[in-house]
Amino acid sequence: MKFPRQFTLKEIADLLQVNYVGKPDFSIFGINEIHVVEPGDIVFVDHPKYYDKALNSAATTILINKEVDCPEGKSLLISDDPFADFNKLTKHFQPFKSAGSTISESATIGSRSIIQPNVFIGNDVQIGKNCLIHPNVSIYDNCIIGDGVTIHAGTVLGGDAFYYKRRDDFYDKLLSGGRVIIEDNVDIGAGCTIDRGVTGDTTIKKGTKLDNQIQIGHDTVIGERCLIASQCGIAGCVVIEDDVTLWGQVGVISGITIGTKVVVLAQSGVGRSLEPGKTYFGSPAEEAREKMKEIAYQKQIPSILKKIKNI
């Protein structure tokens, strides 16, 4: 998430009321999570296990809960609670804006696009040309939809990320300030839910087709011409490359990559990154042919045990 203008380290430190390490006029352009940070971004870290990863990331300002050696060319914001202060920045630069109407006056809708009754379109949404949005679709603030997109009834774009920090007696929510981007000629079935990024974008690229009742988590990127069948659940921060097929009820863990032209057969559980061009099956998902052999061998176990018993 980029700020509306360049800020200085001192300005951000004053906003958060924290100490800092670095030049007061050090430039800051935005905030982001660790997997999408760029130079000029703030990233937060609140556990020693992840200090090195944050300090050595592309981020040039680290919001951290301990004063450590600052890498050359970077700056630190020293916070008692980096998680809470990251939320303060999201709330300050991307505050919640209540809706004043069913279709926001700040939304833009391209020519020949059809919006059916009872569709909600939030603030600053952009919808391209020749789209068809069916009844009871909800499109939250800042979503971007390309040309020739079809969205079926009951789908929700832009819900909050499922991202919480465990406190002593409750779960503290990390606020979402990112977007959902749907590129050209994407079809989205009925009853799908696509969460926005925490600070970045959840993206579905051109030509991809989604069946009904699919969940896509925050900051996930789905490539071009993918096919995703009913009841798949894809966690946050997943990268699905081009021409991937996920059949029904596939579950995908967060933070992995599914390679180009992968096929994952129905009811599989994907718990690791998958190499391109292969077919996978099972839970945990393995190459389908080997998994089928494994299942065949397992079926032979009772007869093998019976033979052993009779020896």
Automatic annotation (TrEMBL):
What EC designation does it have?
2.3.1.191
What does the UniProt keyword field contain?
Answer: Acyltransferase, Lipid A biosynthesis, Lipid biosynthesis, Lipid metabolism, Repeat, Transferase
Q: Which Pfam families match?
A: Hexapep, Hexapep_2, LpxD
Q: Which InterPro entries match?
A: Hexapep (IPR001451), LpxD (IPR007691), Trimer_LpxA-like_sf (IPR011004), UDP_GlcNAc_AcTrfase_non-rep (IPR020573)
Name a GO molecular-function annotation.
UDP-3-O-[(3R)-3-hydroxyacyl]-glucosamine N-acyltransferase activity
Please state every residue range assigned to the domain named UDP-3-O-[3-hydroxymyristoyl] glucosamine N-acyltransferase non-repeat region.
25-91
User: This protein is called what?
Assistant: UDP-3-O-(3-hydroxymyristoyl)glucosamine N-acyltransferase
Give the organism, scientific name.
Croceivirga thetidis
- State the organism's lineage: Bacteria, Pseudomonadati, Bacteroidota, Flavobacteriia, Flavobacteriales
